[in-house]
Amino acid sequence: MALKILRNDNTFTLEGQIDATTASSFQTHFNITLNTLENLTIDINKVTQIDAKGMNAFKVIYNNAKSWDKPFVIVGLGCKDIYEELLSIT
């Protein structure tokens, strides 16, 4: 299933899966987006699956946000699990 990205200001709503087929383009898209915006919020409420490659993409985006000193927020059902995983790498 494709990953659909909808934008409302600096909040991006994701629909679909973040997996081996979509993780690379997801990561590239949000690294570029993070570089051009002051802050970034990703809403994962409509994400149906995140596999290991998808989680790795979140880690790369998170690490870039930290190194570029940019606020990066994940909201929605399951965000706590992602935050716990991200905090375990710091």
Kindly summarize this structure in a few lines.
The chain is of the alpha/beta class and 90 residues long. It contains three helices and four strands, in the order E-E-H-E-H-E-H. Helix 2 links the parallel strand 3 and strand 4.
What does this structure look like?
Helix 1 runs parallel beside helix 2. By secondary structure, the chain is of the alpha/beta class. The mean pLDDT is 93. Strands 1-2-3-4 form a 4-stranded mixed beta sheet, with helices on one face. The protein has helices at 23-36, 52-67, 79-87, and strands at residues 4-8, 11-18, 40-50, 72-75.
How is the topology of this model organized?
Blueprint: E1 4-8, E2 11-18, H1 23-36, E3 40-50, H2 52-67, E4 72-75, H3 79-87
Parallel strand pairs: 2-3, 3-4
Antiparallel strand pairs: 1-2
Helix pairs in contact: 1-2
Instruction: Count every helix, treating DSSP H or I runs of 4 or more residues as helices.
Output: 3
Give the termini separation. Answer: 31 Å
Proportion of helical residues: 40-55%
Structural Rg: 12 Å
Strand order of the largest sheet: 1-2-3-4
Protein name: STAS domain-containing protein
Pfam families: STAS
Organism: Olleya sediminilitoris
Which properties best describe this structure?
90 residues, alpha/beta, four-stranded mixed β-sheet, 4 strands
